[in-house]
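Pasting as-is:
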Amino acid sequence: MKIGNIELGDTPLLLAPMEDVTDPPFRYVCKMFGADLMYTEFISSEGLIRDAAKSVKKLDFDEIERPVGIQIFGHNIDSMVEAAHYAEEAQPDLIDINFGCSVKKVVSKGAGAGILNDIPKMVKMTEAIVKAVKLPVTVKTRLGYDDQHREIVDIAEQLQDTGIKALSIHGRLRTTKYSQPADWTLIGEVTNNPRMHIPIFGNGDITSAETARHLIDTYGVDGLMIGRAVYGNPWIFKEVKHYLTTGQLLKKPDIHERVKIVKIQLQRSVDWKGERTGILEMRKHWGNYFKGYPNFKPFKLRLMSTESHQEVLSIVDEIEQYFSEEGK
């Protein structure tokens, strides 16, 4: 399966772009376990064109991450076109447009999923970006804005007509909370629409290899975009691929494997952001990497209170030893 000239293989698995999660250190470990296509955290078009340090920093990626897409968001068409040019200069493999973010401060400006309130503008913006850049352009969006506007089947056709090369659909409305399950019914309608010829990726509640298999078989998507289930679980890409190929479930990683990957991500985080910031940015991952381990809380409290790389490594070594002995 291809996006433009990018070969992704059969039923590719994509790492969803997630703010403050899918930075280069975490993308690196996801790539280790088989992510076929990854995206940067979403980047503000206004921040990019104004050279805001935080936005520009998000353009960073390692060659080993390829194929990689840079995702941009914004409400102003001219700014989005300029930002797409800026992103293209970083030489990613594709440009992705975020029409899916449901965060209030983004939506209130008519960006992210907020643009689902103005489909003509959404289409016009997409068309302008497709025409402006040489790289393939893809889009991520939702089923619609609210229950009265579940318009993704029509939206998908219009976006395809602009020249985008793939579409990822999150199975929720802008107004749907995460406490409600994703609705894949309309994703299936898009996939099975005879007018559609670009790859369609489904996103939402892909929590396990068995779930992934069920969603592919039931709704016929070309691939999956995995989001929240990767938190502390980059192994999910390997698990899903193994299950799709063999029908067998892989054994969950033991404490030694978890510690090994944690150390890789930690080192890359410190290298990329500096010791203090790198340690602080790792804090959101600790509970996820060791989720389900009893008596982890005292270790987590210590990890959350230190800003020393060496001390973190020492605590992680203690974690490995403690849970190794617990498992005997």
